[in-house]
Amino acid sequence: MEKTEDRLKYKSAQINNALGVFILFFGVVVLIGIFFTDNRIDHVTNAIAGSVLSLIGGGMMLKAQNTMRNIRNK
Questions:
Q1: pTM strictly above 0.85
Q2: Which of 12, 13, 41, 73 could be a cystine partner for 64, CB 3.0 to 4.6 Å?
Q3: How many angstroms separate the Cα of 7 from the Cα of each of 2, 11, 56, 68?
Q4: Model confidence over 8-52: pLDDT tens digits?
Q5: pLDDT of 40
């Protein structure tokens, strides 16, 4: 693989890592919102939405970090 392709993949992985951090942080904020709701349906909604966002953000971060590690080890 060419160096320019590696640089582009690395830069894309960095962007995905930053986006994953943001989505993970937002998911944690939604999960914290569980404690500030009044009824049960709000608790369930926040729990599901926060969990989904946290899983997506965490997965993006792990995939991006794995990609960056693979490019650095070439």
A1: yes
A2: 13
A3: 9, 6, 25, 10
A4: 999 999 999 999 999 999 999 999 999 999 999 999 999 999 999
A5: 96
Instruction: Output the DSSP codes for the chain.
Output: --HHHHHHHHHHHHHHHHHHHHHHHHHHHHHHGGGG--SHHHHHHHHHHHHHHHHHHHHHHHHHHHHHHHHHT-
Residues 6 or more apart in contact with residue 60 via CB below 8 angstroms? 16, 17, 19, 20, 23
Q: How many CB atoms lie within 10 A of CB 30?
A: 19
Query: In the chain, what are the domain boundaries?
Result: 3-69
